[in-house]
Amino acid sequence: MSKPRLVLIGNGMAGVRTVEELLKIKPDHYDITIFGAEPHPNYNRILLSPVLAGEMTIQEIVLNELDWYKENNITLHTGKQIAKIDRVNRKVVADDGTEEHYDRLLIATGSTPFMLPVPGNDLPGVIGYRDIKDTDEMIDAATRHKHAVVIGGGLLGLEAANGLKLRGMDVTVVHLGPWLLERQLDEVAGRMLQKSLEDKGLKFLLETQTEALIQGESGRVAAIRFKGGMQIPADLVVMAAGIRPNYGLAEKSGIYCNRGIVVNDTMQTYDPKIYAVGECVSHRGIAYGLVAPLFEQAKVAANHLAGYGIGRYTGSVTSTKLKVTGIDLFSAGDFMGGKDTEEIVLNDPHGGVYKKLVIKDNKLVGGVMYGDTADGPWYFQLLKDGRDIHDIRDSLIFGQNLVGDVGHAGKSKAAEMADSAEVCGCNGVTKGVIVQAIKAKGLFTLDEVKKHTKAASSCGSCAGLVEQILASTIGGAYTPAALDTKPMCACTDHSHKAVREAIVAQHLTTKEAIFKALEWKTPNGCDKCRPAVNYYLISTFPHEAKDDPQSRFINERAHANIQKDGTYSVVPRMWGGLTTPAELRAIADAAEKYNVPTVKVTGGQRIDLLGVKKEDLPKMWADLNAAGMVSGHAYGKSIRTVKTCVGAEHCRFGTQKSMTMGIKLEKMLFDMYSPHKVKLAVSGCPRNCAEAGIKDVGVIGVDSGYELYIGGNGGIKTEVAQFLCKVRTDEEVMEYSGAFLQLYREEGWYLERTCHYMERVGLDYIKSKILEDEEGRKAYYFRLLDSLKDAKDPWQTSREEQPIKQFIPIKLEA
Amino acid sequence: MSNWKLICKLDDIPQLGSRVVQRATGGDIAIFRNAEDEVFALHDKCPHKAGPLSQGIVHGRRVTCPLHGWNIGLNDGQAVAPDVGSCSTFQVKVENGEVYLAL
Question: In terms of residue numbers, what domain contains B23?
Answer without folding.
Answer: 10-89
